[in-house]
Each structure stands twice: as structure tokens, then as C-alpha cells.
Amino acid sequence: MLVTIDDKSLEAAAGESCGQVLSRAISGKRLKNSVACLVDGQPRDLSAPVPEGTRELVPVLADSPQGLAIIRHSTAHIMAEAVKKLFPTAQVTIGPAIENGFYYDFAFERPFTPEDLEAIEAEMQKSIAANHPFSCTYVPKADAKALFASQGEAYKLEIMDENIEGDTVSLYRHGAFTDLCRGPHVPTTGMVKAFKLLSVAGAYWRGDEKRPMLQRIYGTAFAAEADLKTYLHHLEEAKKRDHRKLGTQLDLFSFSEEAGAGMAIWHPKGELVRTILEDFERKEHLRRGYQLVRGPQILKRELWERSGHYDNYRENMYFTEIDGQAYGIKPMNCLAHMLIYKSRVRSYRDLPQRYFELGVVHRHEKSGVLHGLMRVRQFTQDDAHILCRPDQLLEEITGVIKFVQDVVGLFGFDYEVELSTRPEKSIGSDEDWDRATKALTDALESLALPYDINEGDGAFYGPKIDIKLKDALDRRWQCATVQCDFTLPERFDLVYTDADGERKRPVMLHRVILGAVERFLGVLIEHTAGALPAWLAPVQARILIVTDAQKEFAAEALSRLRAAGIRAELDDRNEKLGFKVREAQMDKIPYMLVAGDKEKELGGLNVRLRSGENLGVKSLDEIVLLILADCQEPFKRGGMRYNFCSQ
RNA sequence: GCCCACGUAGCUCAGUCGGUAGAGCACUUCCUUGGUAAGGAAGAGGUCGCCGGUUCAAUUCCGGCCGUGGGCUCCA
């Protein structure tokens, strides 16, 4: 795999390409599966000459992550070639590889249509069939600018002016198409074995909404046709898990054009799930020393002016007027929590104060960003504000992260952690920022949580940790977050009397665990494909009768299950058992309890799980214990306590 | 907010190159009492998102609005 180059072989390799040296050292087959190589860790074309001083060469295999990125980026070039050939007036801009594919942004006078995409694909196939080599040349920047200027490629000129330092640029050519590019690329276009163009969408030039809107064509490519098929199949499957689809199918929630965009309407089953989840949250917060509080839905505008929300967040807020007095509908819960803190004199002994509220907030999100339950205009945050002394910061942050870990672990999510540090525009002293950032990193490290750093992406008032969960289509949604805040305590003049009798400023932590109940449920529905764990399932058990000879027996069994606290229902319709099982399966009900003559005689019910497994006939007592144990199981595993029997 | 696409029965979708519409599931009634993913028959259900324009005539063409989807920007 790894080819070490000593001085002697480097001399022998003089004038040879990396590919030639590698082909001598490794089997031809392996080289055939390679799309590029790493020269001392740097990705390079196989056709590149071996640079002086090279110590090692490593082939990059087509199906490795790096290999896929190179294939995808090369496919983007082939796509740009096809677009320029079919639509000569289109201007090329940039076309990187991304997580599951690639895109290329074009400036063109009319929108691309699905038919255009087909034509582009066909044109790409021609280029691939021709098996053009990708070649790299280094030219003076001035020459490259002359070349792109002659082709009317204004965006490429801008990139050279603003983004490329030095006097030399690299150009990649295949067939008749030349692009400004750093590379590397696959050796020839024929190495692209499997690709598909997926969609076209608008995208701002340089991601700036004040710049022109370009057209972005998304596509994907894989090392082999089978991998592409698998991926496309995965996309289809993921769409079936879409929480918007399942929300309708399972009758959990809906949106109504009449009610308004971004306003979820919770149906009985959905509201039940929410209630169970919120009840769980209240208990877990109380266990961890939080206090339950509740603020008003609208507060006087002056308060929002004082907090800075009016200046910084006004476009996202809704306002109203009462008796000539202006009010703002809360987009956040912190203000009332601070008023609670201020309602009496606080001693250092009183800290930390941890105020928890399932706070309903309204935010005027731009219409284009609304997305099912994931992005709505009214939502409920599991919000808390912790007011503590600076010396308590580390312990409080650690406690919050541990809390998040417990909850995320309970549901078995994949997640990513990001630490965002001080942005350019920020307030507060260096000392405060350093202490807060250190507290956040110390907390992450003490819990051995891997994390990425988002330099300069913190809030203007303090650094933060974000935890992002993935949805069915691999999109990331921010859920939990912990933010340090020195500003609001300042603005609202929050103080406590310290041991030395001095009045001091507490630090405020803003934090959420689930984030928003709505978003979290959206992600959870996709994560579980709608088969919610038994403790959260709106209907835990459904009794299915075989004939109406068991109606009475089944009704009796139902009331016994309900008396034991099981959320059960009865399907005594005049339908065949197979039909009822099918419906119960589609409703994702964890326990299907069949009542036939046999069961009636034995005084029990036949237990079928939604996995299809049949546990045989069990007594009602056994069934109750079975379901309750199933409900407790995730909590036991996570070392949490949540008592179902007390409900 | 921006670019593009879409909006037909409760749900999933056909259809109409301008002459007011159809299927499956669901719903109601009847037959069927059937043992682990769809038994049968009949019936009912739509001002084709809303408002305007063009036209003898608009669900169909045009415009505006509302809503949804894929992205961009922004965020829990």
C-alpha cells in the first residue's frame, strides 16, 4: 500500500510520474483501482512528476473517502464541460465535492430544466466514453486571466483576483474543457464509472444573499455502479422515513394552510407523545436541581429594547399592542427568567439558580426556511437559564453536557459536537471569554467528547457548544446548545452578594437539551421510522379480536391493561385478523395482542411484536410486566430514573 | 427573503394540447365470523389552493397572493 522512496529510488524515478513509480512497486490491478496518490500526504495526480525530496507515495483507491472526493470533483468538471458544450453562454464558477456527491454552480440566462439535466448527463457520457486524459499545467496568472477573459468567465477572473495568491495558477484540461482548479483529478474521464445528476437549485454567489443567484446542479458519483444504486436506493428509503410523511400517516400532527405557515397542529396521538416527552423532561430536570418556572407569552417592548433583542432580533419578532402599550411576543425565554432572579436579593449561597421552562416561543422565520417540524414559527424550547458564580461555571457546563449525553444516549442518536469561539464582533473582556471558553473545553474534555471547533462562530455575548443530530437524509439539525452569557446579567444588572460582602455579577448559561420539542420529535420520528420506543408510543398495545365471540373478553382485558397504566386500545371491528394485524403494523404499535377462542379459554392474549416476532400466549399480568419492563429498559441502560407507574 | 418546481376527494396519485373530472386506500351500508401485513358488494365524497385577467367558455392560458417541496442565506 505504502511505497517508501529512498534517495536511490528517487534518483531512479527522475522524470517519471507518480503513477509510473507506483506501478513498478504495486500490482497493476491495485493501480487500476487508484484514482490519484498521496505524495508525503499531499493528494496529487498520478500523472504528476515525483517531486524532489519525496519520502513516500500512497495510492488513493477509488472507493476510499479521498478517492470518492476526487472522482466526484472530476465528475463536476465533466459536467461543466457538458454544460459549456450545450449552453456556451453559461459561465462556470465553482464545483466542489461535497459529503455525498458534488455540485457545480453556473451563471446562465435561463433556468435549467429536468430535460436539460438529461441532456447534460448524455453529453457527460460521451466525454466519459472518449476517455479524455485530465492534464494539469501551471501557467502565469496573467495568461490564465487572459484565457478566461476571452471566454467571458467573469467569475473565474474574480476568483483569481480575490482568492489566489502568487503569480502561478494551475489549469486542468480534459478534452476541450479547461478549468481553473487545484486538483487532483482522476487520470482520465473514463475512470468515472457511475454518476447521476440529482437536482438543480438556486445558490448565491459566494453564499452571499446580496450577490447574484446562480444555478447549482447537484449530482453524485461512486466508484462502481452498484454503489451508486445502493446510494439511490438509500435515498428512496430515507424519504419513506420523512417525518412529514409519517406525521400524516401516524396521525400525529399536521399543518394547515388556513392556520398559517410554520404552525404545527398537534393531533391527539402527537400531543400524547409530546406530553410524555415533556413530562419526562420535567422529572429529569427536577432530579438535577432545576426549578420549574413560567414566564408570560408577551412582554413589554421596553424590556426587549433593554435586552438588545429589539435592536438585534426585531425582524424575527412579532409585536402587538395593548391599551396603547407596545408588547413583543417572546422569541426567547431568558427575560422572564432574569426577572425571577431579580425579584429578590441573591446571596452567593443561593447560586446556582437553575430555571427551567418548556417555553413556547414565536419567531418570524423567513418563509423559505420552514421545513416540517424541523423549522417552524411557533415552537417549545426545553429551555433553562443557569445563573451561577464564575467558579461554578465548569461544574454547571459539565452537568449540562452530561444531561445532554444521557438524553441523546437514551434515544441512541448519532450526533456531532461543535465548539464556537469568540467572533470578531463581540463584547466582554478577554478574561471573561478565556474563562468561559476554557470552561466549555474543559467540560468537553472531561467527558471525552470529540468535537470540532468553529473559530469565531460564537454568539456575540459568549462562546457556545452546539450538538447536532442527523435526520434521515443526513441533514444536521442543531438541538442541544449551551451558551455562556456575560452580557444580559450586565444589562439587567443582576447581582449577588459574595462571601466578602461585595456585590458581584453572576454568569448566565442559556441551554436547551432537546432544543425544540417539535424539531426533536421530527428527528426522532425519522430516527425510529415512526416506531417510537414503547415508553413514548402513543398506543402501546392494541387488542385484536379474531371474531366477535371475544368482544366481551377483549373489552375486559382492555380495561385491565388501562388500569395498569398501559396505553391500550381495542380493535373489535368486523374484519379479518390479517387485516387488523396489517393496520396495527402500519400504525407501528409495539404490542399486538390477539384475542381468539384459544386465548379466551386460557384467560390470556397472544403477543405479537411489531418486529413480527410472536411471543405466544401470555397472561394479562405477564403482559403488563412485559410492557412496563420494555418502557424502563432504555432508562436502566442509561442509568436514568423515570417512573412509569406513577402516571 | 431569494432561485426553481409543485398545489386535483381525508391520504397517495391519474387526467384535461380551454367545453366544470377519475383510480386505489380511507369513510358509510350490506354480505362475510375469518387465526398473525389487504375477504366481497354497493354508496357517498371534489366551486381541480385563493383572487383577478384573457375568452362565448378557465381546473387547464396569463398575473398576483397563499401554501408545499428541493436548495441558498439565516437559525432550535
Structure summarized in a few sentences:
With 647 residues, this protein is of the alpha+beta class.
Topology:
Blueprint: E1 3-4, H1 7-12, H2 18-25, H3 28-32, E2 34-39, E3 42-44, E4 56-61, H4 65-86, E5 91-92, E6 97-98, E7 101-107, H5 114-130, E8 135-140, H6 141-150, H7 154-163, E9 168-174, E10 177-180, E11 194-204, E12 213-222, H8 225-240, H9 243-249, E13 253-255, E14 264-266, H10 268-287, E15 291-292, E16 298-300, H11 301-307, H12 309-313, E17 319-322, E18 325-329, H13 334-342, E19 353-362, E20 378-388, H14 393-411, E21 415-420, H15 430-446, E22 452-454, E23 464-470, E24 476-485, H16 487-491, E25 496-497, E26 503-504, E27 507-516, H17 517-528, E28 541-545, H18 551-563, E29 568-571, H19 577-586, E30 591-595, H20 597-602, E31 604-609, E32 614-619, H21 620-637
Parallel strand pairs: 15-19, 21-22, 28-29, 28-30
Antiparallel strand pairs: 1-4, 2-3, 2-4, 5-7, 6-7, 7-12, 8-9, 9-10, 11-12, 13-14, 16-18, 17-18, 19-20, 20-27, 21-23, 23-24, 24-27, 25-26, 30-31, 31-32
Helix pairs in contact: 4-5, 6-7, 9-17, 14-15
The structure holds one RNA strand of 76 nucleotides.
